[in-house]
Amino acid sequence: AQQPGTPLSDQEYHQFFKFLRITIQASTACHLRELYGCKNSLVQRLDEYENHGVIPPGPICSELPGDPFFNNFCTFSLYRCIMKKYFLKV
What are the record keywords, sorted (predicted)? Predict the structure, then answer.
């Protein structure tokens, strides 16, 4: 373990920026979703990519306490974007 206040090692920086890049990409996808909506062809392609080629029909169940399901994948994705839980799975 590193001492508090010391810089990250090369390996730690690699992991840090890898996570940051992924988070920025997820945030960008959310921004597109918020701007153009779920009917936009680019947003639909991202949704298909995330789900191995098929956007799941609703309702969408999740492991969230209190919000067990969403009417459709779009609603679920918007929730993830708003809550910044980009990698929450169904």
Answer: Cytoplasmic vesicle, Phosphoprotein, Signal
Q: Which residues, listed in sequence order, are joined to residue 69 by a DSSP beta bridge? A: 61
Q: Please indicate, yes or no, if residue 33 is contained in any of the structural domains.
A: yes
Question: What is the tens place of the pLDDT at every residue in 66-77?
Answer: 766 788 888 888
The total number of structural domains in the chain stands at: 1
pLDDT digits (tens, 9 = 90+) for 37-57: 989 999 999 889 888 898 888
Q: Give the C-alpha distances (Å, rounded to integers) separating 55 from 25, 29, 78, 84.
A: 20, 16, 14, 21
Task: Name the token pair of 61.
Answer: 């169940």
Residue 2 lies in a domain: no
> How far apart (Å, rounded) are the C-alpha atoms in residues 13 and 56?
36
